């Protein structure tokens, strides 16, 4: 089954478009970190699990009730507000990816915010559910007044004309779609590298593997800190129970494993608040070590 047929069938199952309006919020010093929903994805289980032998996967399927139906991960965008900025991490799917996603405008409205209130957009990476929301139904920039920031390695990867021919047939549409959105902000985007302070109190943390230049972000305000992990920790089951297993969602699976283990170790050791884009209940929480897992 190709991607288009799968999405059409899943859209029929989700008539009207499911929205996951869970909002998680925490204070960071005098600032606020909130998650806002862009809806949810509908994915075949093999998208994540194909690299894992079924005999190993079976106990995890039972533990997390993953035996029936598609995966429906939430899409939680982090929203950081301090005295001078309203920062949105990623922009969601927009109208062109899946009927169950692309709900960011409605979710912002629930917080009495409009796209024009966003001062800065910071990208973790350029997969469809993170960057396709740059453009509205008319092909215009949705966050027209915002400043745009993306990691240099991520920008260079998707901007490279060879990417569409080397990424694999299943992800070619990802490359074409990313390039189209990036062209819309080509003259405005600001690029950064690992360790850079991209905005006051917000530092880039290289978390390569899910994509070639995926970035996490450490936010510090006063004595409080949080880590925006994007898709580097991409689900609430295998990524925690067996972070050493490959994920079919990662473009570089070995790098993804190394990144995942490093982030989980740090989050557990420092008890830093985390926000994960596809984690449940708004995607916000803390990590604890439980034996060899998390």
Helical fraction: 25-40%
Q: Which geometry do the CA atoms define?
A: globular
Biggest sheet descriptor: 7 strands, mixed
Which stretches are poorly predicted, pLDDT < 50 over at least 5 residues?
1-19
Kindly report the average pLDDT value.
91
CATH superfamily of the domain at 3-206: Ribonuclease Z/Hydroxyacylglutathione hydrolase-like
Class from secondary-structure proportions: alpha/beta
Order of helical and strand elements = HEEHHEEHEHEHHHEEEEEHHEE
- Percent strand: 15-25%
Under the CATH scheme, which architecture of the domain at 3-206 would be assigned? 4-Layer Sandwich
CATH topology of the domain at 3-206: Metallo-beta-lactamase, Chain A
Provide the spatial order of strands within the biggest beta sheet. 1-2-3-4-5-6-7
**Compute the gyration radius: what is it?**
18 Å
List the total number of helices.
Answer: 10
CATH class of the domain at 3-206: Alpha Beta
- The counted number of beta strands is 13
State the end-to-end CA separation: 34 Å
Descriptive notes:
The protein is an alpha/beta fold and 294 residues long. 28% of the residues lie in helices and 22% in strands. The chain has helices at residues 3-13, 46-49, 54-63, 104-109, 128-131, 152-159, 163-166, 172-184, 238-241, 253-270; strands at residues 25-28, 31-40, 74-81, 86-89, 120-122, 147-151, 190-192, 197-199, 202-206, 215-221, 224-230, 273-276, 284-285. The protein has a 7-stranded mixed beta sheet with strand order 1-2-3-4-5-6-7. The protein has a 6-stranded mixed beta sheet with strand order 8-9-10-11-12-13, with no helix packed on it. Strand 4 (86-89), helix 4 and strand 5 (120-122) form a beta-alpha-beta unit. The longest helix has 18 residues, at 253-270. The radius of gyration is 18 Å and the shape is globular. Residues 1-19 have low confidence and may be disordered.
């Amino acid at each position: 089954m190709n991607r288009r047929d799968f999405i059409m069938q899943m859209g029929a199952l989700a008539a009207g478009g499911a929205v996951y309006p869970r909002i998680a919020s925490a204070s960071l010093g005098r600032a606020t970190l909130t998650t806002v929903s862009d809806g949810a994805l509908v994915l075949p289980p093999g998208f994540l699990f194909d690299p894992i032998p079924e005999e190993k996967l079976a106990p995890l399927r039972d533990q997390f009730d993953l035996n029936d139906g598609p995966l429906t991960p939430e899409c939680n965008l982090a929203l950081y507000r301090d005295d001078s900025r309203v920062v949105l991490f990623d922009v969601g799917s927009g109208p062109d990816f899946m009927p169950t996603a692309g709900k960011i405008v409605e979710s912002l409205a629930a917080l009495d915010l409009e796209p024009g209130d966003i001062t800065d957009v910071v990208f973790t990476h350029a997969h469809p559910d993170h960057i396709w929301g740059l453009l509205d139904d008319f092909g215009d920039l949705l966050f027209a007044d915002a400043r745009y920031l993306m990691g240099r390695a991520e920008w260079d990867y998707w901007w490279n004309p060879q990417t569409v021919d080397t990424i694999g047939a299943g992800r070619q549409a990802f490359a074409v779609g990313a390039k189209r959105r990036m062209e819309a902000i080509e003259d405005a985007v600001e690029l950064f590298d690992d360790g850079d302070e991209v905005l006051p109190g917000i530092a880039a943390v290289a978390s390569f593997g899910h994509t070639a230049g995926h970035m996490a972000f450490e936010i510090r305000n006063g004595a409080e800190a949080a880590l925006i992990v994007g898709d580097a920790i991409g689900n609430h089951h295998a990524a925690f129970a067996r972070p050493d297993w490959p994920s079919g969602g990662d473009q570089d699976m070995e790098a993804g494993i190394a990144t995942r283990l490093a982030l989980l170790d740090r989050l557990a050791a420092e008890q830093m608040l985390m926000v994960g884009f596809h984690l449940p209940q708004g995607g916000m929480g803390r990590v604890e070590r439980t034996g060899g897992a998390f």
